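Good morning C.,

I know you're traveling, so I'll keep this short. The sequence:
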Amino acid sequence: MTKEKSRILAQLPSLRDARPRHFWATTGVAAASLFAMVAAFGTMPGTLEIERSQQSLVEQLVPQQALVVEQAREGFAKEERIQRGDTVAALLNRLGVADPQAVAFLQSSREAAPIFRQLSPGKSITARVGTSGELQSLIFPLNGGTDRALFVEGLDRTFNVTEQALQLDTQVAMKTAEIRHSLFGATDAAGIPDSVATGLADIFGGDIDFHRDLRKGDRFSVVFESITHRGRMVRSGRILAAEFVNNGKIFSAVWFGTAAGQGGYYTVEGKNIRKAFLRSPLEFSRVTSGFTAARFHPVLQKWRAHKGTDYGAPVGTRVKATGDAIVEFVGTQGGYGKAVVLRHQGRYTTLYGHLSGFAGGVKKGSRVSQGEVIGYVGATGLASGPHLHYEFRINNIHQNPLSVALPTAPPLAPEQLAKFRETTQPQLVRIELIRGSNLALLD
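The C-alpha cells, ready to paste straight into the viewer:
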C-alpha cells in the first residue's frame, strides 16, 4: 500500500513530492489541559517564510522522546518510527540490530510475515538489543486497529513469535503543517500519521479537490486521537477537529457524536460538512482526461465525447463509492470493462469503469456507504492503460463530476445545537491554539 501511494503521489501535477526529512519535536511546555500536542510546520497569517528556524510547543500526558534508549545491564531498548519506503533491513539497522540469525528467522517464519507486509509509515517499533547487536525482543504493532502486536522474543538464540494484546491509552494530539510540495510530504515532515492525512482528504473532499486544488502555502491544523502503548503512539484514532486553508479560503470541521458509536463532521455553525457525494472516488490520483464534448479516443483512434473523468492510478488502487447507494450493476459492460453502477437518492447514478476487480460483498442490490471500497483500478475494456473512468449522472444525463454542484447532507436539528456547542468547544479551542502558534517552516 505504501509503494502504491508513493507512485500515486508522484503523479500529482505541480506538487511534486520531495522526500521529507522526519523529525520529532522535543521541547516541552507545561499546560493546564491533559492532552498531547506537537505543533509543527505552521506560519502566522501574513508572515514571510522563515527557512531553517523552528519553534515547537509540546503539551503531554507522559514524557516523550524522539528516541527512546533505556540502558540495561546486558543491552538496551530502542524505539524507531517506520519511515516511508522503509524495509525490514533498514528498520532493524536503525534499531541497532546486527544479527543475521534473527534476520534469517524473521524472513523464514510464517508467524513473522506481518512484519514485512505492514510497514506503515509512522508506526513505532520497539526492540531490545544486546551489547553485540543481537536481537533479544521486538514489539511490532499490527495494522487494522486490532490493538494487538507481534512479540518476537529470543532466548539462547532460539526465537519465538506470539501475538498479544497491547495495553493502550488514548491521548489527544494536535499538529499543524504547511504544504510545500504535497499533503503527504507535509504530514510526513510534521510526524502526522498517513491515516490522519487520508482522513483529512476524506473530510474536506467535498470542498477541496485534492487532485487539483492544493497550493504551496496552504495550511492545515488537526486535532486527533493518538492511541499509545507505554507512552508511544501505536496508531491514530478519530480526527476530532480540523481546519484547512486552501488558496486563502478556510474550511473547518469538528466531530460530533449524534448517537452511540455514530457521528459526523460539522462546521463550527453546526452545518453538516459531509456532501451527499465525494468529489472524487480515489483518495489521490491525477486527472488524465476530463469531461468534454470532443476527445480523441486513444484506443478507437477517433474523436468522440468523453462524458466522464479519467483518473490515472496504478492497478489495484482502491476505488470508493462517492455516495450512499444501492448497487445497480456489477460486472462487465462493453468498453467500460469491469464496472460498477450505483444508484443514489433516486435520480443520481455513478459509474466506475475499467476496474481490475470488485470488493468483497459488492453485488447487485447490496447497499454501500459513502467512502466504502467497491473495486480496484485496472485497465479492462477499452483502456489504453491503468486508470479509473468515473461518470456522474442526474436523471441519466451526464454531468461533469468536477464542477457539478453537489447536494449537502442534512444539518443538525435545532434541539441538538446546544449540546453540539458544548461538546465541540474544547476541540475548537485547541485548533485556535495551534493556529496562533508562531511556527516556521523547515525546508
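Safe travels,
E.
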